[in-house]
Amino acid sequence: MSKRVLTGDRPTGKLHLGHFVGSLQRRIELQEDKSYDEIFVLLADDQALTDNFSNPKKIRNNIINVTLDYLSVGLDPNRVTFAIQSQLPALKELTFYFLNMVTTARLERNPTVKSELELRKFEGGVPVGFFVYPVSQTADIVAFDATTVPVGEDQKPMLEQAREIVQKFNSIYGDCLIAPEILLPKNASGNRLVGIDGNAKMSKSLGNCIYLSDNEDTVKEIVMKKMFTDPLHINVSDPGHVEGNVVFTYLDAFASDKQINTFAPEYKTLDEMKEHYKKGGLGDVKCKKVLLEVINELLSPFREKRKYWEDRIDEVYDILYNHTKKAVDVSNNVASRCAKAMGIDYFNDKNLILGEWKDWLSQK
User: Fold this and answer.
1) Which of 65, 136, 146, 205 sees the fewest Cβ atoms within 10 Å?
2) Does the residue 111 lie in any domain?
C-alpha cells in the first residue's frame, strides 16, 4: 500500500513563524523523505468559511497568499500536490455520510472543538459548519487515502475522532477506508510557538505574529519594540529569567550555536548566553539584536523565493488549477468506492434498485 500524507491550512491570512515551526518544517522534511509516495496539501477554504461566511473575499484573497508562502519555504510543486478544498465535490459527499456516524454529544467532548470555541467566542450561537469540523476533516483525510497526517499535540483529538469514524464506517460496510496514522512533532518546540506577547499561541486573530513574508523593517519593529521579555529584568545588571521569556523561546526554536557565536562572539553556545542572562549583566536589547539577526537569516531566502513566484503569478494559478484537478480525480474515486460499499451507487449497478424491486414482486 502506498504511503500518502495529507496536511493543510485554512487560508485566512498569510502564514507566520508559528506555522513554520508547527507544520511547514515537517512538510519539507516529509517532502524529502523517500518512504512517502505522495503529499497532498489542502487549502481548506471551506473550513475557513465556517467562521468567515459573511466575508468570502478574505478567504479568496488569501488562497494565493498561502500558496506563495508554501512555495517560498520550499514546498516543491513537482513533489507536493496543492488542492483547493471547495473545488472537491467528493468532500461534501463524504462529510454527509460521516455526519450520520457521529453524535452531537461526541463532538462536544472533543477537546480541540472546545478550545477553538472558547478562542473564537461566537456571538449568537455556534455555526453548525464549525461545530462539525472534525467530521469534515475526516472527509478531507480519507478522500486522499491518507495514511499519515502530521499534526501538533493540540490536534491529536481531531485525528483520534477521524480514526473512530473510519473504524465505524468499516465495521458497517466492510474494509473500505484507511484509518490514518498520527504523526506528532519530534520535539516540544514543534507543538506550538508562543506569540510575541507571550500568549500561548501565535495567531493572526490575536495580532501577535511574525509573518514569513514580513520585511526586515517590520521584523525589527516587532522584535525590538513589541516582543515580551522578562518583566522583572529591569536593569542590565538584574538576574533574568529565560523560562517564559519570548526572546529565549524563539532563540531555542530558531537559533543554532553557530549563529549565536556569529552574532554574539563572546558566547560559544546559546546555553552560555542563557547563563549570563540568568546571572545578570546581559541586557534585553543585546538579546533581541541577536534574535533579529537569526530571524532575518531564516526569512531572507523565503522573501527572495516569494518575490520569484510573485513575478510568475500566472504559473502559481496554473499550479493550483492542475493540482486541484488531480485531487478531484483522487477524491472522486474514494467517494465512489464508499458509495459502492454502502450499496447506493444506483446508476453504476441497475440491479441495486431493480433487483430489490424484483425480489419484492416475487414475495407478493
Assistant:
1) 205
2) yes
- Residues with Cβ within 8 Å of residue 334, at least 6 apart in sequence: 90, 94, 142, 143, 144, 145, 177
DSSP state, 144? T
Q: Residues 258, 297: one domain?
A: yes
The pLDDT of residue 191: 61
Q: What is the CATH number of the domain that holds 303?
A: 1.10.240.10
Burial of 101 (0-12, 13-18, 19+ CB in 10 A): middle
- Domain identity same for 158 and 173: yes
Residues 133 and 54 in one domain: yes
Determine contact, residues 234/223, Cβ cutoff 8 Å.
no
Task: Indicate left, alpha or beta for 8 from its phi (over 0: left) and psi (-120 to 50: alpha).
Answer: left
Q: At 149, is the secondary structure helix, strand, or coil?
A: strand
Stretches in the chain below the pLDDT threshold 70: 187-191, 364
256 with 136, same domain: the answer is no
Instruction: Give the rounded percent of residues in the chain with a pLDDT score beyond 70.
Output: 98
143, 91 Cβ separation under 8 angstroms: yes
Which residue's entry shows cell 541586557? 283
Q: What is the DSSP letter of 207?
A: T
Is the Cβ–Cβ distance between 154 and 119 less than 8 Å? Answer: no
Pair 65, 14: CB distance under 8 Å: yes
Co-location of 170 and 117 in the same domain: yes
**What domain range includes position 299?**
214-309
Whole-number pLDDT of residue 192 = 78
3-state secondary structure 212-260: CCCCHHHHHHHHHHHCCCCCCCCCCCCCCCCCCCHHHHHHHHHCCHHHH
Give pLDDT, residue 51: 83
Neighbours of 205 (CB within 10 A): 12
d(CA 221, CA 132): 40
Q: Which residues pair with 38 in a beta bridge?
A: 4
pLDDT at 187: 63
